[in-house]
Design goal:
Length: 157
């Protein structure tokens, strides 16, 4: 049996090839749109005219909500980890005492995703912020139960 490694393909590579092949003007790529265009797995919570492709911190008097991406797997974990820790720091700066991770759109999670949830919980605890997981799908709860990590989280439906 032979193991074949496939080349890593990223969005910039695909976009540059499409621009070279097509004489039709293409929309601005991720570099032109800013940092948020490179993180399509994070989206905005709440209303207003704000961009919907960014992770959102909805700051109410004492609560913040961060949407978890549809796929919290090895491919998406680094970007989500960075965003989540950034928003926890912002929440602390705004004296937010209650932080929710909304998982209503999450359909896939692996061990690295579980690790990110634990990291976020630990950071929130260090900052004195109460964290809860809201609208977690049954598969996510079952995965936490199997790994005996459910005791670390407070769930809310």
């Amino acid at each position: 049996m032979e193991i074949v490694r496939l080349p890593k393909v990223n969005h910039r590579h695909i976009a540059s090839e499409a621009q070279q092949q097509s004489p039709i003007p293409q929309p601005a790529g991720p570099a032109m749109l800013g940092r948020s265009a490179m993180r399509p797995h994070l989206r905005l919570v709440g209303g207003g005219g704000e961009r919907k492709d960014q992770a959102a911190l909805r700051a109410e008097p004492v609560q913040a909500v961060l949407m978890v991406p549809e796929r919290l797997v090895a491919d998406t974990r680094a970007a989500f980890r960075k965003e989540a820790l950034h928003y926890l720091d912002r929440a602390e700066a705004q004296s937010v005492k209650d932080f929710s991770l909304e998982m209503s759109k999450t359909v896939e999670m692996d061990a690295s995703g579980l690790g990110i949830l634990v990291v976020i919980q630990k950071k929130a605890k260090e900052l004195g912020i109460h964290m809860r997981v809201t609208k977690a799908p049954a598969q996510v709860r079952y995965l936490l139960l199997l790994t005996k990590l459910e005791h670390l989280f407070e769930f809310e439906d």
